[in-house]
Please model this.
Amino acid sequence: MLFPVVDEFLDKFRDKFFREEVSLLTFAGRDLFIDPPKLSASNMIGTLTVGDMLQVWRIVNLIAGSFAEYMKPLLVTDRALCLRSLVPALSDDMLRDMLTRVLGPEKASEYIDHLAMGQTKNRDLIGCAT
Model:
């Protein structure tokens, strides 16, 4: 599966809140006594903000939803294959490219570095080689 690189599509991932995110930010903002826009701009780790994490969350949800729809016909004919295939495989390079298009190269690298947590061997997910 290739990540769509149309600018109009990518704009949906930038600088706006989705309906689900508004409620998440509102509830968290109440608990932390902070406005949702300020919370979104708050740093979580390094230079990565809550908003950056929400953007990555959008991508992951998009891929998971798209993959589930793609696999849906197989639920009837080959359920075992479908159940084994629920996690799409991404190489480090594919993930880096996808995140770079939304977060920019510096934040994408920082995100992946934190995601890897020091792991240097066997970083690619099942079935992909870099």
